[in-house]
Design goal:
Length: 99
């Protein structure tokens, strides 16, 4: 899969409050680059704690569920778009329809 954009992850984990997210986010990024998902069921089979929202949005739990990562996936084009990374409190304020 291609991931757009790693810069979003870097900008997040380079903040002093979120340095502990670097290793888990880098591991997630490295792993997803090697994958070839065709549908949300394949994502869910690999990441059981992930939440599928609609057909394209996936919420991943990062760093032992300390952070939430929201992506949209274009399965046909094999592209993962990073839409949000943040704490649970920040996640609770996100309007999914705006992503």
């Amino acid at each position: 899969m291609r991931i757009i954009s790693k810069k979003t992850l870097k900008d997040f984990y380079e903040q002093s409050h979120y340095k502990d997210s670097k290793s888990p986010l880098e591991a997630w990024h490295k792993e997803v680059l090697k994958l070839d998902w065709s549908n949300p069921n394949e994502v869910k089979a690999m990441y059981r704690s992930a939440s599928v929202i609609g057909n394209e949005k996936i919420v991943f739990n990062i760093a032992g569920n300390k952070y939430r990562l929201i992506v949209t996936i274009n399965y046909y084009a094999k592209i993962v778009f990073i839409k949000f990374i943040g704490t649970h409190k920040q996640y609770d304020e996100v309007n999914m329809e705006d992503l």
